[in-house]
Every structure is written in structure tokens, then in C-alpha cells.
Design a protein that fits this description.
Length: 312
């Protein structure tokens, strides 16, 4: 249930209600949107109401559990606005929907979607698979790897992938990140969200200025995905890390083309517990990451698509 709590004379109530209803119609059309009027300071105290407008999805405030003391007053969101940004409402709805496989898309799968994959994996629980891909995959930008390393995320094993590889991978949430380009169109059965973020790969200037452009997008992704995968608090992010992940390195015999490696990647990605797969064509190998993976299942999956796998 989605609840919009407002004071009777709140000038931002209409905008907030419209924003919530539009987002709910796209992402959670079965959900009820309820508008509750908070009439005085006494009701604000009883409800733990931090200001008008307040939006709660399944009882959880958009900005987290701890949003400050009760207040019979206006509430301010991003950049001082009285209406929450659309991305925040979408992120709160995604948090409630609890997708099992989130796919980030852009054109080249080189910068924004790669950083989103790294940040998402660091925040999501072990039961959630996080991937990224592009319609015209190219190469991972070294600046993306560097700025992720600055916040403790290792993306050295990332590679650019085609979104065609994920049509049979159980994706139930797609987040496109293009701003200037024509974004890939996902035709599968999944919840779709579009966050238009500037392409840091197009930034100009000194090396440090370009890195700052990557950092800005990274920080925006951290802010948004902290809502999707939890309440945004440090304690919640730590809890979402789960147990240390397993990493299984396989030697793959028989792969001879990109199509072959795509078949292997799909087969390994469908194995229980697998969260990410990075396949290298030459030499034929795969790095599989996840929780409680049975190595025998990985070997059998590769065998079923006509190749041979051994543990390195």
C-alpha cells in the first residue's frame, strides 16, 4: 500500500499525489494509493509525521526509517523542492517490489551501467542478481573502474555485454540510464524504470575533471540504489552485504566465437546461487560469483550447451 500523508493546506500536496499516482500506475498498478490528511501537531506526533508531503510504501518512508522528529510543517526533498523527485518515488516502489534480477542498460555498457552494476551488487542482498548490458557493447571505461575502487568496489573483472544475452536470464527489473542517446528497448516481461544520467564518458577537460564527472554519476547511483536495496542507512547497507561471496574460476574448452561465449554465460547464469558471470573467449574461461554455488551444477550447465568445463 502506498500512502501520501499531507497537511490540509500543503501547497505541494497536489504535485506529490500526482507524482506518486503516475509512478504507481507504471510500476505497481495493483497497488492502492491512499491520501491521508494530518490535521494538527498531535496527529503528526502519533503518526511520526516528519512533514508534508510524506510518502510511505508498505509503511516505510521513501527516505528511510529515521527521517527526523515529527513536524507539522512543510517537508523538503532534493534541492529544496516540496515534491519528492520522481526517481525517489520509483526507487521506493522498486524496494517494495523486491526484484530478483535487476538489469541496468545503456548503449555501450562502458560507464554508467557498469558503475550501476558494481554499486548495485555492493548494496543488494545475496538473493538478488545484478547485471548490466548495452545495445552496442564496447569496453569498460578505466575511469569507471577507478572511481568504483575509491569506494571499495572491485570492478576489474567487469566486461561489456550485449543485452541480447539476458532475454532468457529471468530479468524482472530493467533500469535504463541513457540521457543523450537512444536507449535500448527491453521487450521482455519486466518492470521498467528510466533514470537519465549524463554520460561521464563524454566529459572533457583534465584527467581529474573527467574523473569528477564519473564520481558525480557514481555518487548519484549510490544515493538512488541505497533506496532500492534498503532504507539507505549505513546499517542497512552493511546488513545487505550478506556472507562473503563465492568465486569459482572455470576453464572452458570448445568456445570459438562470441556466440559460443554467450551460450556459456546464459547457461552459467541460470544456475542456482549465481549472481554474476564473466566469460573470456581467449583463453576460454569464466569467473562465476554468487552464494552457495554447487560446482557440479556449473560443470553440468556448461556440458548441456556443448562445452567442457573444469575448475581452475
Amino acid at each position: 500500500m502506498i500512502e501520501v500523508q499531507v497537511t490540509p493546506d500543503c501547497p505541494h500536496a497536489g504535485g506529490a499525489i500526482e507524482c506518486v499516482r503516475l509512478a504507481a500506475a507504471r510500476l505497481a498498478p495493483e497497488s492502492e494509493v491512499r491520501v491521508t490528511q494530518v490535521r494538527d501537531a498531535g496527529e503528526a506526533d502519533v503518526l511520526g509525521f516528519p512533514g508534508s508531503p510524506t510518502i510511505r510504501v508498505d509503511g516505510l518512508d521513501l527516505e528511510g526509517l529515521d527521517v527526523g522528529p515529527s513536524a507539522f510543517a512543510c517537508r523538503r526533498y532534493e534541492e529544496g523542492s516540496g515534491v519528492p523527485p520522481t526517481w525517489l518515488v520509483e526507487a521506493g516502489l522498486l524496494r517494495a517490489l523486491a526484484p530478483r534480477h535487476v538489469l541496468f542498460l545503456c548503449v555501450a555498457n562502458s560507464a554508467r551501467s557498469q558503475m550501476a552494476e558494481g554499486v548495485g551488487r555492493s548494496l543488494a542482498g545475496p538473493a538478488v542478481r545484478v547485471s548490466s548490458a548495452g545495445s552496442e557493447p564496447s569496453r569498460v571505461r578505466p575511469q569507471a573502474v577507478k572511481v568504483l575502487s575509491e569506494i571499495g568496489i572491485d570492478a576489474t573483472g567487469h566486461r561489456s555485454k550485449s543485452f541480447d544475452d539476458f532475454h532468457d536470464a529471468g530479468v524482472d527489473c530493467v533500469i535504463t540510464l541513457c540521457a543523450e542517446e537512444n536507449c535500448p528497448v527491453w521487450l521482455g516481461d519486466a518492470v521498467r524504470v528510466h533514470w537519465a544520467l549524463p554520460d561521464p564518458a563524454a566529459a572533457t577537460g583534465s584527467y581529474e575533471e573527467v574523473l569528477d564527472a564519473f564520481r558525480a554519476v557514481r555518487d548519484e547511483l549510490v544515493k538512488r540504489l541505497a533506496v532500492v536495496f534498503g532504507d539507505g542507512t549505513a546499517e542497512d547497507q552493511q546488513a545487505n552485504q550478506g556472507e562473503p561471496q563465492m568465486v569459482v574460476d572455470l576453464k572452458i574448452v570448445g568456445m570459438s566465437c562470441e556466440h559460443c561465449s554467450g551460450r556459456v554465460e546464459k547457461a552459467l547464469g541460470a544456475v542456482a546461487g549465481v549472481e554474476s558471470v564473466d566469460v573470456t573467449l581467449e583463453p576460454g574461461s569464466a569467473a562465476v560469483t554468487g552464494q552457495d554455488i554447487e560446482v557440479e551444477d556449473l560443470v553440468e550447465a556448461v556440458d548441456r550447451v556443448g562445452f567442457t568445463a573444469t575448475v581452475e
